[in-house]
Amino acid sequence: MRKTVLAVAIATLLASFGQGLAGEGSDVIFEDKFQDDGGGWSQKETVSIGDGSLSFMLPADDMQSNLNVMFSVEDADVCVEAVWPTPKKPAEAGEVTPPVLGAGLLFWGENNRTYYQFGVLNNGRYWIARKQDGAWVGTIAANIDTPAIKTAPGASNTLRVHANGNELGFYINGTKVRELRGQAPKGSWRFGVSGDNFDKTDVATVHFTKMKVTD
């Protein structure tokens, strides 16, 4: 009896480690755990892909984005897991707070200059914005506080956008934070990720560990 209980417990634990991102759709269109650079992402000096992570190496006061080149969707459920960096050494008393960083999920992308962005900050806030022809034309939700965001160094957050026609649902770690209606691109669109460094003086890194798209 004890052996049976132990076997079940071990199997359950292993299954939990093997779980990927939850998607609402039944068909998987795209999935990437970033073990290599073959997932269709643009290769840039500021992006490192491999060994289980897509990482943006961000200069001071900089934002980087990366739309997937190889895959496009129409109605879709897009999920990505972002991880805040951990400091190189433990924080000491009297040290300044960590820089504000942002991790974003891009959707309704037409090209590298036109897309929508759903992002979280490591200070517990989220935003939704639109970029058109290379310029930010509006912030739909700006720095909204939510307890759904995990802010500790090394913590992971799952961002999800459910796009169905012109209707959108936004989720952080399984919690719905917003619903919107908008004008979806005609035909198919692209998805991607972004990283923001709001520190004015120092470089920073934002990591993504897995992404899944279903319909």
Descriptive notes:
With 215 residues, the chain is mainly β. It has a single domain, classed as Sandwich (Jelly Rolls), CATH 2.60.120.560. The chain has 1 helix and 14 strands, in the order αββββββββββββββ. β11 and β12 (175-181) form a beta hairpin. The radius of gyration is 18 Å and the shape is globular.
Secondary structure: elements and pairs:
Elements: H1 2-18, E1 28-32, E2 47-50, E3 53-58, E4 62-67, E5 76-83, E6 101-111, E7 114-121, E8 125-132, E9 135-145, E10 156-164, E11 167-172, E12 175-181, E13 190-197, E14 204-214
Short description:
The chain is mostly beta strands. The chain has one helix at residues 2-18; strands at 28-32, 47-50, 53-58, 62-67, 76-83, 101-111, 114-121, 125-132, 135-145, 156-164, 167-172, 175-181, 190-197, 204-214. Strands 1, 2, 3, 5, 10, 11, 12 and 14 form an 8-stranded antiparallel sheet that branches.
